[in-house]
Amino acid sequence: MSKLIVKRRIRYEEIRLFRPNDIDQSRYQESLKRRIAAYEYVTNHPGKMVPRQTIPVCDVPFVLTELGVPHGKIILRGQTVAKILGFEDEANFSTNLHEVPIDVLEDLPNQLCDPIAIIHSASRPDDSLVVLTEHRIDDKPIVGILLIDTVKKDNESVHIITSVYDHETTSKGFKKIEIFEEWANKGLYIYVKTRT
Q1: DSSP per residue over 50-89, as a string?
Q2: pTM of this structure
Q3: Kindly report the CA angle at 63 between 191 and 85, in degrees rounded to 5?
Q4: Cβ neighbours for 152, distance < 8 A, ≥ 6 positions apart
Q5: Which of 92, 132, 167, 171 could pair with 116 in a Cys bridge, judged by C-beta atoms 3.0 to 4.6 Å apart?
Q6: Where are the beta strands (DSSP E) in 154-188?
Q7: Any idea what the Cα angle at residue 172 is, between residues 171 and 178, rounded to 5°?
Q8: Which residues are in the Phage MuF C-terminal domain (predicted)?
Q9: What's the pLDDT at 30?
């Protein structure tokens, strides 16, 4: 994947490139609402299970295609929604629940289309990106992890959001390291939003 540096001023008519289309946004919101309602139902009815389904988030946005991400769809798996929002489900993510607010997850298509930064994953630089959003929880930035070109469906690439969570800004080891600064020093940033 290449680096994208946009130095010029974005023209007004190009602003739409940094927004999800209305159909994608509507479909995502409806699918997410149904999924959350299902998890709330099984939380109150022990023994019930939520069927495993995927949620279409959006088509690959302009900013990601410019970085070399193949055209296709971005999806969320149902059990990932449970992990992100803090619901325990049949996949048993109870040891790693994130409890991200629902409104942050609802805004995911906007954040993918107009992120603060896009960073190669330090652990999987070849096929995974960290998308830095404008949201924060307790001064920790919310990030989304995007697995690139995971599967093909009808000859089209499908990319999977594997997690959304509030990321620590410093390491927990003996020597405190500013993680986002360390990623910059390693050259992992491939896009940084500079327009206002």
Answers
A1: PPP-EEEEEEPPHHHHHTTPPSEEEEEEHHHHHHHHT---
A2: 0.82
A3: 85
A4: 158
A5: 132
A6: 156-166
A7: 20
A8: 96-193
A9: 93
Tens-level pLDDT at each residue, the chain (196 residues): 444 444 444 454 566 778 888 888 899 999 999 888 888 777 777 767 777 788 999 999 999 998 889 999 999 988 888 888 887 654 455 556 778 889 999 999 999 999 999 999 888 878 899 999 999 988 889 999 999 877 777 778 899 999 999 888 776 665 556 888 888 888 999 999 886 5
- Picking from 165, 30, 24, 144, the residue whose alpha carbon sits closest to that of residue 85 is 165
Length in residues, the chain = 196
**CA of 25: how far to CAs of 33, 49, 111, in Å?**
12, 27, 12
As a whole number of angstroms, the distance between CA 146 and CA 131 comes to 7
The whole-angstrom separation of Cα 43 and Cα 149 is 33
> Closest Cα partner for 112 from 137, 130, 136?
130
Q: Could you tell me if 144 and 131 are in contact, meaning their C-beta atoms sit under 8 angstroms apart? A: yes
